[in-house]
Specification:
Strand content: under 5%
Number of strands: 0
Mean pLDDT: 90
Order of helices and strands: HHHHHH
Helix content: over 70%
Distance between the termini: 60 Å
Number of helices: 6
Largest sheet: none
Low-confidence stretches: none
Structural class: mainly alpha
Number of domains: 1
Radius of gyration: 15 Å
Oligomer: single chain
Length: about 80
């Protein structure tokens, strides 16, 4: 029998848990920022699950990069006005 593959949403929570030792070594301010950064993939759950990537970290990182890109673009356009 094959293994059951967890949903993307659950798999992202599992991946977050795997990064707990790294998070624990950060200072308080960085922990807050790290936690905020790891919330971004939740915004793109449907896109991440539809990406069907064999390496789960790829859509997670792309979600984070994309959200940061959107924030930078928003700042750039607000400065340009």
């Amino acid at each position: 029998m094959g293994r059951t593959v967890p949903s993307y949403r659950i798999a992202t929570e599992i991946e977050k848990a795997r990064w707990k030792p790294f998070r624990e070594m950060l200072n308080r301010k960085d922990k807050k920022l790290f936690d905020e950064m790891l919330c971004y993939p939740q915004l793109y759950n449907s896109a991440g699950s539809n990406a069907v990537r064999p390496v789960l970290l790829e859509p997670i990182l792309m979600s984070i990069v994309f959200e940061h890109y959107k924030q930078l673009d928003k700042m750039r356009t607000s400065i340009g006005k």
